[in-house]
Fold:
Amino acid sequence: MKEETTFNELVESIRTAHRELSAHAGRAVNISLTLRNWLIGHYIAEYELKGKDRAEYGQHLFTALAQELDGLSNCNQRQLYRYHRFYQIYPGIVGTLSPQFRSLPAIKEIPISGIPTAKLKDVGRKELTEISLDKLSYSHFEKLVDIDDPTKRVFYEMECIRGNWSVRELKRQIGSLYYERSGLSKDKRKLSELTRETAESALALNIRDPYVFEFLGLKPVEVMSESHLETQLTDRIREFLLEMGHGFCFEARQKRILIGEEYFFVDLVFYHRILKCHVLVDLKLEPFTHENLGQLNTYVNWYRRNMMTEGDNPPVGLLLCTDKNHALAEYALAGMDNQLFVSKYQLELPKKEEMQRFIDAQLREVSE
Structure:
C-alpha cells in the first residue's frame, strides 16, 4: 500500500486481498480434489494392468474396492468407475502441474514419461490442458467426462474455459445442444459471442461444490447457505414452525439428496407427528416462479419414493418465496389425489397468509 492512503483505499485494498486470496484458495482446493480423483483412477488403471492378484477380483474389482473404501468420501462403486474414466480421458493432465503440486509425494511417484498422451490430437490441446486445472473444478470434469464424442468434449472444454462458465452453465449449454447448434450455424463466431454474453460466469472457483466440502470434511450447512440473510431467515423459519405446536419435529437442514447423478439440497426437513409425513421447506430469496415449485415438487416426489415407510402419508412441500417486498407461501401436494388428505394437510399446516406475514416481518427485521 501507499504510505498515505484514504479510508476508501484501505477498504478496497482489503476487499481486493480477500477476493484474490479466496479465489486462490478455492482453486488450490479444487485442484487438490481433482488430483485425488485422478490419482484414484490412475491407481485402478495400473492395478488392472499390473496388479499381482488382479485375477482374483476380475469384474468384481470395483465392488470389492468400494466395500473396502466404505467411509471414504465419494468412493462408492459408481464414483470409482467415474474416476477410472476420468483418468482414461485425461491421462496426461498431471504432467501440466505447477511445481507446488508436482512436489507432492503421491505425484512424484508417478513417472510422467510413462503416462499416455490424449488420443485426440487437437490443435492447441496441450496449451488448453495446461490451464484447465486452474479453470475447471472436478464437477466441470464430471460433466465433460460424460460426453462420449471426443471432439464434442473438447468443444465444451474450450468454450467453458474461454467463457469461464460455472458448472450450472456448462450443464445448461450441453442441454441446449450448443455444440450441435454451432455445427449447423452459418456464423459460428456470432453464435459464440452471443452465448458468452448470456452465459453465467464462475467468477471464482469456491468450496460450495458438494464434492469439495465432503473432501474437506465440512457439513452442508457450513457451506451451502446462499447468504447471511438466507441463513438468518432459515433459522427463524425453523424456530417459527417448531414453536407453532402443530406437531413439527425437526430432522435436517440443507438435507442433501442424490437424484440421478446430481446432488440437491432441501433447506429444512421436518417430520409431522400428527400428519405422519415429511414436510420439506424450500426458501427462495426471489419472486415465485414455476421453476421453484417444480424443483420442490421434485424433492417431494423423491421423498415419497425413497423415504416413505409403512404408515407414512405422502410428504408435502412448503415453498417460501420473496423479493423482499412481497412474500408467497405455496404448497406442493404431489400425487395427493385424495382431497380429504389435501384438506387435512391444509388444516394442520400453517396458513399461507400466516406464513406470508411472518416472512414479511422477518425480512424487515433482518434487512434493517
